Amino acid sequence: MISMDAGEALRLDSVRKVYGTADNPVTALDGVSLRLPTGTFTAIMGPSGSGKSTLLQCAAGLDRPTEGTVAIAGQPIPKGSEAAVTRFRRDRIGFVFQQFNLLPTLTALENVTLPLRLAGRKIDKKRCAGLLAQVGLGDRMNHRPAQLSGGQQQRVAIARALASSPALIFADEPTGALDTRSARDVLALLATAVRDHGQTVVMVTHDPAAAAYAHSVVFLADGRIVGELARPTADAVAEQMTRLTDAAARHAPVGV
Ligand SMILES: Nc1ncnc2c1ncn2[C@@H]1O[C@H](COP(=O)(O)OP(=O)(O)OP(=O)(O)O)[C@@H](O)[C@H]1O
């Protein structure tokens, strides 16, 4: 039974995710349990193939665990129909992807209002325009994605993720396609969502400098949590990653 703890933004209990067939199973997550308090910024790191994206997808209700449960603010993600999961997600979760995932035919403002439109919610255009202004795109509202730089497109994607005021924002390598300066802008925006609005951010990244914006880093290897680092610095994160990557190369267990 999952306790109703509203102070807990995200809780995973013994989550396993197995892809592939019975003959050829791939265990992407192998019993992951994790609790993240509301208002925290967490980075997820680990070698390639360690299960980071799968963890994010399962935590965000975009994919279903093979076993185990996920709860957002004390409410388990429904195990029923896709429509029920989508409804659950819309009210609680924002997602930022590496490749922005903006609709090319819509303007920046239309991209930001789209999730509200899809959810059948009242569209507060002024607020959405305000969000674009907040991310520094007040003068780009009517531009289409192709007319914006990568960093600007990602800022539109962040404004879109914030439009429904989600308690929880997941970001899968949000700075992966950006130059250093745009990456810093995007990370500062995520940090602001946490600091000023009490939102909770969970971000997958390969970049120790990006992870240093988080309050803590969770390290994955072979589908398991193998360590955590509080108040990370880029150097400390890089050192742990080197150990993990070396251990993965040797197929040896590691104690972080
Ligand atoms: N749809 C899928 N079907 C089969 N196997 C999958 C699928 N998605 C992921 N996997 C496998 O699950 C494991 C974990 O993948 P995942 O993408 O979560 O890792 P990751 O840590 O995000 O990797 P990267 O850093 O390279 O993006 C990998 O072995 C991958 O090949």
From TrEMBL:
Name the UniProt record assigns to this protein: Putative ABC transport system ATP-binding protein
Alphabetized Pfam families for the sequence: ABC_tran
Record's keyword terms, sorted: ATP-binding, Nucleotide-binding, Transport
All copies of domain ABC transporter, residue ranges: 10-247
Molecular function in Gene Ontology: ATP binding; ATP hydrolysis activity; transmembrane transporter activity
InterPro entries registered for this protein in UniProt: AAA+_ATPase (IPR003593), ABC_transporter-like_ATP-bd (IPR003439), ABC_transporter-like_CS (IPR017871), ABC_transpr_LolD-like (IPR015854), MacB-like_ATP-bd (IPR017911), P-loop_NTPase (IPR027417)
Record carries keyword ATP-binding: yes
Entry superkingdom: Bacteria
GO annotation, cellular component aspect: membrane protein complex; plasma membrane
PROSITE patterns: ABC_TRANSPORTER_1, ABC_TRANSPORTER_2
